[in-house]
């Protein structure tokens, strides 16, 4: 037995399919709009919380600060951050620039970050790696993140003159040079107002204490806040 379907019935079926398709697209768009943007922290022990509870580190405190300073209908201004943000901490103790460069492609694929904070180089400098090599790897790392559509914040570091003042000066200068040439914002020195403050460094004189974490966040926050605002405004206008 054969059944014939009238043109009116076909129109009903097609209309139903179109409605479901439009509904699905609208739901997906709404879900995408409500999903938080992501910040990927790519760092070493200074960001992974070496020697302290991870929940007491500056990266964890960053999550709270963003939540506290999120823009709302009643709170706007230069200090607030538009939109929702989540923080992914991919920092590893002992990490080098080369190690971060090797891990980054997978991290970009897995997390799809809107912002990448690059806090690397301290371990390279303490091991006396050639500055030119570090600079080239940092440049590749930043360009890779930018090519994936992420905005980058570069965090600078300084090291003691173990290998002579010329090496230490060249090491520190590479961050400002890269930030200028690649047009990315820069935190000049992650441990500013930390290394020489009593009670702010652990006994190894390399890693900060729990008490130093709010100051580290204060060092990062102005540049990061401005970058988050820039990203939020760009997406709002697109």
From TrEMBL:
The keyword Signal applies. This is Arylesterase. InterPro entries: Ester_Hydrolysis_Enzymes (IPR051532), SGNH_hydro (IPR013830), SGNH_hydro_sf (IPR036514). Residues 41-211 form the SGNH hydrolase-type esterase domain. Pfam families: Lipase_GDSL_2 (PF13472). CDD domains: Lysophospholipase_L1_like. Residues 1-33 form the signal peptide. Keywords: Signal.
């Amino acid at each position: 037995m054969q059944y014939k379907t009238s043109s009116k019935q076909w129109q009903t079926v097609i209309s139903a399919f179109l409605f479901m398709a439009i509904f699905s697209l609208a739901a997906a768009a709404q879900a995408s709009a409500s999903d938080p943007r992501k910040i990927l922290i790519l760092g070493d022990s200074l960001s992974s919380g070496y020697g302290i509870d991870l929940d007491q580190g500056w990266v964890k405190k960053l999550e709270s600060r963003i939540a506290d300073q999120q823009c709302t209908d009643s709170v706007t201004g230069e200090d607030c951050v538009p939109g929702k943000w989540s923080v992914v901490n991919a920092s590893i103790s002992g990490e080098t620039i080369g190690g971060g460069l090797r891990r980054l492609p997978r991290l970009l694929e897995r997390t799809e970050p809107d912002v990448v904070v690059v806090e690397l180089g301290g371990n390279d400098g303490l091991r006396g790696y050639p500055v030119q090599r570090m600079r080239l790897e940092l440049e590749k790392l930043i360009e890779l993140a930018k090519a994936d559509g992420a905005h980058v914040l570069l965090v600078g570091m300084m090291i003691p003159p173990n290998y002579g003042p010329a090496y230490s000066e060249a090491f520190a200068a590479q961050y400002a040079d890269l930030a200028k040439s690649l047009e990315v914002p820069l935190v000049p020195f992650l441990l500013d107002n930390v290394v020489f403050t009593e009670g702010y460094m652990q006994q190894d004189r390399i890693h900060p204490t729990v008490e130093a974490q709010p100051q580290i966040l204060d060092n990062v926050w102005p540049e990061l806040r401005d970058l988050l605002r820039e990203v939020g405004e760009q997406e709002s206008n697109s």
